[in-house]
Design goal:
The protein is mainly α. 16% of the residues lie in helices and 0% in strands. It is built from 3 helices and no strands. α2 runs antiparallel to α3. The protein is rod-shaped. The chain starts with 182 loop residues before the first helix and ends with a helix. 10% of the residues are buried.
Length: 235
């Protein structure tokens, strides 16, 4: 019939005249013999190449819309990786300089958009961080716990005597981050009389009556002398 290249009266493929009445050959639209595929054309850049083999990554032929590149091998890090994408962070292949690569640019999912593991100090601001300056240096504006350098952030930095992560006075570290004395120690200091006070109290105590009592002015002189002695001893 018109339009038939052949007709052998059967529908057997690969016997010379295929079931579509075309001569058995690559590109006739019928997969036969040693052909992996046959899409009826000789286009190399679709799923079935011109030689009737499947277009796969690593064969050196770029499949349009599927492969970004194809350098004929499956070596990673050579510019075109084993998944036929250009070597880069986010292509799903871990190569030199990357800690991880999960094939996306989502931050906080375990592997961040710069191909480092989600963590404080990786330069990517994620949940739970106030800042992230790519290092764990304290006192540079963003401290090693990824909070802004400030009193009360839990990190002792220059100018702060101590740091408990809170700004409550009387707990050993006051709101200005200087070490504070406990209430009991302050109370004990307030209750302890000075040597001068003891000397004055002692001098003022009434003495037993004697045959001859010193005049009042001699008592004051004794008080003054005792007080001075106490002051010298305290020094």
């Amino acid at each position: 019939d018109a339009g038939e290249a052949c007709d052998d009266g059967n529908a057997t493929e690969g016997d010379g005249c295929d079931s579509n009445c075309t001569v058995s050959a690559c590109g006739n639209g019928v997969t036969s013999g040693s052909e992996e595929c046959d899409d009826g054309n000789l286009d190399d850049n679709d799923a079935c190449k011109a030689d009737c083999t499947l277009n796969v990554c690593g064969d050196g032929v770029i499949e349009t819309g599927v492969e970004d590149c194809d350098d004929g091998n499956l070596i990673d890090g050579d510019g075109c990786d084993s998944n036929c994408t250009a070597t880069a962070c986010g292509n799903g292949v871990v190569t030199s300089g990357e800690d991880c690569d999960d094939g996306d640019f989502d931050d906080g999912d375990g592997c961040d958009s710069n191909c480092t593991v989600t963590a404080c100090g990786n330069g990517i601001l994620t949940s739970g961080e106030d800042c992230d300056d790519s290092n764990l240096t304290d006192g540079d504006g963003c401290d090693s716990n990824c909070t802004a350098t400030a009193c009360g952030n839990g990190v002792a930095t220059a100018g702060k005597g101590c740091e408990e992560g809170k700004a409550v006075d009387g707990g050993g570290c006051g709101s200005n981050s200087k070490t504070t004395a406990s209430p009991s120690s302050r109370s004990s200091r307030m209750k302890t009389p000075s040597m001068v006070t003891v000397a004055i109290r002692t001098a003022r105590r009434p003495r037993a009556a004697t045959a001859s009592r010193r005049p009042a002015k001699h008592v004051m002189t004794a008080v003054s002398s005792t007080a001075m002695a106490a002051i010298r001893t305290a020094r």
